[in-house]
Amino acid sequence: MNLVRCIAVSGLIALAPLALAKDYNVSAYGAKGDGKTLDSPAIQKAIDAAMTTGGTVTFAPGVYLSGSIFVKSGVTLKLDKGVTILGSQKIADYPMMPTRVAGIEMTWPAALVNVYEQKNATITGEGTIDGDGKVFWDSYRTLRADYEPKGLRWASDYDARRPRLVAIFKSEGVKVGGGLLLRRSGFWTLHICYSHDVEVDGITIRNNDDGKGPSTDGVDIDSSKKVLVAHADIAVNDDALCLKAGRDSDGLRVNRPTEDVVLRDNIVRAGAAGVTFGSETSGGFRNIEAYNITAISPVPVGILFKSAHTRGGWGEDIRLHDFKLQDVAVALRVTMNWNPAYSYATIPASIKNYPPYWVALSTPVPDEKGIAHFHDVHIWNISGTAKTAFEVDAYAKYPLERFKLDHLDLDAGKAGHIADAKDWTFSDIKLKTADNSKVLLTESDHVTGIATTEK
């Protein structure tokens, strides 16, 4: 009898958290949902209350003007259809916090919706998170126009502080999806940094609805592991699905790879590429698989690897397959000297006072540490149309090694070129070119299985 009673009591204890979990409607905490009242304090009160029971924060239909909010451990933020969280256009409503942005650790405005050093949090529903970001796009463009003539193109992205839409930082067991619409982000849309066991399933991203916002990336997976991104429909004005791992001396110091990532069943309607690695490559990439990816014009590139000779890092065990490309400019592009005006930082001698992160950006990195080494990459089942099939450039001293490409079926305007390749193999290749060209190689390349010519 005592044993039965003990088991019963134990069962009640185990079930107690589930029994206590409940909904916390933000209206009960003072949120108006009128699109005018700043509702973030009320929303945060509801989140903090829900944390005590592992509850769900809910909203009546409406537009909730908000600065940064922070989803806590065990809490579900549920945005049903007809609910919009609308980002404040006042940068003061986004508190400055330690984070990493574009590969550098620094303080930066918090995102509109944050999961910051938490566990088992969820953001879901068929509602909308709208950054209303045009004011931040415009401020960036104004600053960049001032900076570029001064040789400070590289600094403009860091000095024009813009809020991301959703940021997951140093967190685990996070889920995002369920039909969410993410739109008009002030900067990157969904940034997953220093986190693990993150599932993103069922999101739509639209950042070009109010003009094309600069650097409005879609999903950035940054020095994180065990991440899934599935059923994403993306239209942005920069990288769409992007793997990142730190920049230059600061990224090499942190030295955290992005690994164990799956990207599947996604469509990119606008952005830099279907899938992008870099340009922040310092910590490296391992065990990355992307498949069932569709990239549609005006997307310029199907698969993109980009780095710079100060980034460093590596990539290995990368598997990219079952891509459908519709009228992209380039099917496969690899560049290890990407965007020099942005990638290489030199502080003009005339400038004496500058922020500490400028030092991290401008610290020299020698070639032996700065060249990224990509090897053991398998690309297969790629079909569609492109203006150019291949644009591949690395360094003769540090070639791209052991790329395997098979079952490619491409109609292209021209074949393009592959430079600085070692032990590349092609098989079952159907490459039809409008100009009847063959892939152009350099003399030092080691490429077999595809019709080629040499420079």
UniProtKB/TrEMBL annotation:
Annotated signal peptide: 1-21
Top-rank lineage group of the source organism: Bacteria
InterPro entries according to UniProt: GH28_Enzymes, Glyco_hydro_28, PbH1, Pectin_lyas_fold, Pectin_lyase_fold/virulence
Single Gene Ontology MF annotation: polygalacturonase activity
Keyword vocabulary terms for this entry: Glycosidase, Hydrolase, Signal
Pfam family, one: Glyco_hydro_28
Record family assignment: Belongs to the glycosyl hydrolase 28 family.
Protein name: Glycosyl hydrolases family 28
Origin species: Granulicella rosea
